[in-house]
Structure formats: C-alpha cells, structure tokens
Description:
Elements: H1 3-10, H2 13-46, H3 48-52, H4 64-99
Amino acid sequence: MDTTELSEVRGTPLFASLVRRRRRFVVGLTAATLIPYYAFILVAAFAPDLLAGRFPGCEVVSLGWPVGVALIIGTWLLTGLYVHRANGEFDTLTSKILAGEKQ
C-alpha cells in the first residue's frame, strides 16, 4: 500500500471505530488476566496461610491448587473470547475497511 492509501484508510470512521473497539477490549482482557494473576502472587508471597488452607472435603489439596487452576483456565477462556471476537467483529470491520466502505 502507498502511504497516501494508508493515510486515507487511517482517516476513515470505520478504522477509528475498529481501533477504539479493539483497544478497549484488549485493555479489559489484559486487566482481567493480570489483576487476578498478580493478586494470586501477592497473596502467595504475603499471606500464604490463605492459600495453604485445606480445600473443603479434601485433606490433600490446599486452596492454592484450585485457585491456580482457575487462573490458568480463565486465561484460556479469555484467549478464546479474544479469538472469537477478533475472528468475528474485528475481521468484519477490517474487511469493510479494505473494501473501501466509509461508514
């Protein structure tokens, strides 16, 4: 693409909408991933007794194990959510932009 074509694409309302929507979504997903992860690490570092407690009904498993597994599964689910939305809404907007639609 020529630089003038890139400038024209960047100036369209659809491109601005795509960038705004994607940025808002990615920031939300990043926060939803990092905040629980760092909270888990901080609890493990500064209040390990909270995670060392036994899981109800099980003498072998501490609370830290299911919480850690939930964090990993949650990250997979958030990744799947991003892929689903990227392949749907974001790709549709990108196709419209590439096709030359203005709105």
